Protein: Sugar ABC transporter substrate-binding protein
Organism: Youxingia wuxianensis
Amino acid sequence: MSMGKRVGCLLLAAIIILGLTACSSESAAPSQDPPSSQVQTSPSEENTDSFDWKKFQGTEINIVGVEGVYNEQILEAIEPFEEKTGITIGKVDFIPEAEYTKKVQLLASSKSSEYDVYMVSFTNLFDYVPSQWIEPLDGYLNNPAITDPDLNMDDFYPSVLNYCYWNGVNGTPLGKDTEGAQLYAMPFGWIVFNLLYRSDLFEKYNIEVPRTVDDIIAAGELIQEKEPGMYGVAMRGFKSVDMLYGGIWQTILSCGGSDFDKDLNPVFDSEENIKGLEKIAEMINKVSNPSDWANMTWYEVLTDLQSGKCAMAIDAPSLATWIADGEDSVAKGKIDVAPPVYVDTADKAKSIIFGWNLGINAFSEKKDAAWYFLQYCTGAERQSSGSRLAFPTRRSAMEADSFKQSLQDSGMVNFIDSWNKTTEVADVLFTPATGFNDYGYILAGELQNAVLGTKSAKDALETVSKYYSDNYK
């Protein structure tokens, strides 16, 4: 890989954050037999007394992923990985999120071995596993000949590792305890979704940190009165599946609802979800920026918070670290993080967990070498060094004293405590179901309709349930 390309990708990664994507799924469980076109059909079986990082030296592998904050960590790992293993990274391609899923689908449909390592989100598994596009990793992980004895899987946060397991059966949950589940990706970087707030303004006006949506409305109305030109809270509203991750869906579900029942019947229009959407609509219309809300992506949330246009945001805490590490602004050093807000009671609080993980292309001809790259990039040593724009998936890295101190020095004194409290209620919050990327887009549009008043919350959510039933039942 040329230095010019690496530098170009680094510059690109420096201005992009939080790429999120999701895919649909099929109902059949994946076959355990690898595709016949593979040259290397299973992990090496030979044993060795000491782990040999040079075992596959001279091999060249290629990587494809989504443009975003995670790119920098991959790029920073290439040179030390090549030195340690003798494996060469031939090319690394980062693709805009909107195009990434289509790219992988095209590669997989032709059984292409062009790339060996994929970036994989939890919801990507809904599609990749049943379609047999991604390699199960259990055989690699359990083979001491090709697995570093210091890999220490127990160091990963349990939740982020758990959601890398699935059995590929439509309607069954992600997770290690699901019958027949296998490991399909190694946790690489992850985020949960919290409340971000201007600590200086909350101190100035003696405002308690909000715990409920009503608290946000009250705080927002006070700040809008005291700070002309500033609005209360920013939240993603642009019509895309990405919108669902940015706080709105988790807050709706804090009323106790879900997307499907146990029989995979859509229940988007449950009384609980209707109540949650009505409360979110009230919040956005009173203390958000309703005229621009439908155009808000994560980037507009970031820039409004950074420039002082808003006092709060419901989004990923990555935005807070980005502001703290970025150029001088009115908000630099003044953004702190709190647990996610809820509509009614704290026991129903929700947060979406999202991660970009690393997996192996099922059609790769160099799977063992790819497995070495996965181990290296997700290892404790690598996760504890280099860029921290995306949060480490290992406790040893995330809870290191130096990392905690850097957060406190940046004004985020409550970050780690809020992060740990949030992980306790974090979940994927989407049932693995056929058509996720499709009906998720419909859901985003109907949430827009309800917030902007073109439909009632009830009518909007009924439209989503009907759409799923008409197209996927």
About this structure: The first strand starts at residue 60 and ends at 66.
